[in-house]
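Lecture 7 notes: from sequence to structure.
We start with the chain below.
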Amino acid sequence: MFNSFGEIFRFTTFGESHGKAIGVVIDGVPSGMDFDEEFLINELDRRRPGKNRFATARKELDTPEILSGIFEGKTTGTPIAIVIFNKDQKSKDYGNIKDIFRPGHADFTYFHKYGIRDYKGGGRSSARETAARVAAGAVAKMILKEFNIKIEAGTVEIGGIRAQNLDYEYAKTSPLFALDSKIEKEWINIIDKARNEHNSLGGVVKLKIENLPIGLGEPVYYKLDNILASAMVSINAVKGIYIGNANSHKLTGFNNNDEISKNGFLSNNSGGVLGGISNGENIELEIYFKPTPSIFKPQKSIDIYGNEVEVNLKGRHDPIVAIRGSVVAEAMAASVVVDMLMLNATRTIDKLKKIYQ
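Predicted structure tokens for the same chain:
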């Protein structure tokens, strides 16, 4: 019951990392919208593994197969089901840890919660599941295109080294989704160093939502910022999020408040949200990813019987998950915004009359 996200625009993902397939069922999509299958494929390709040395070497084409909800290139208003078949599982790589808890992974908690766990690639807790989220996010972006709402993201920090410039157009062409071309080479060097030392790195993703109308967000328990935060922290390896100025906690109230003129806000320390409701400014988020827990160094752990053991992992893993995680963050943000647009559509009697009169 907790594999679904959203209220009106709602998606449910299914499948495991080394299962036959993963997929998503998306409900709440309006009928009559042009469905851009090429865009869906391109979005999945952005997240796809095996493209370069900064991601896992697992070779998955992530070709989507649309099972329902589309007729003659348009949405029907019924659930859209999309499946992605797994092609390059190497389950034998996990045979040596089937009874061992890997440090930093969900093995320990899944086993103690359910009494059983899929040890092959982490099963349901694997980041492989996020491909299904990106498929849902692609559909959400198709809807947002109708409203000229734009969502962009890229890496702003890797291994503690911070970007000084933010260029979202450059990030689209960068293998690291780097927001700063001048610091990209340094990031590449430290990623290569970590990988050569059989280690991994953490990173920070910067995300921006443009052209959002005023009024999105449902106080007090379904605020725009708290649902965005929930969406981001649901992504594998995310340990924190900051909305607006990441240094606000260091400022005084006078310096942090966004003063207002007749032409609009004079700053955007709030990150586009006041009282849980969008204020018309850009939504700005920073999402903090921990280092990839799958590393090829001996580590201490225990097995399911309580015996102390040494863990030596095999397999193919990202040296840093924040890079591909930026695509997932965009997808989750798009899903939140579409859901908020739909929730907001009938908030006043005048809007309701426009729909039904």
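Points to note: The chain has nine helices and 18 strands. Residues 4-356 form a domain with the Chorismate synthase, AroC fold fold (CATH 3.60.150.10).
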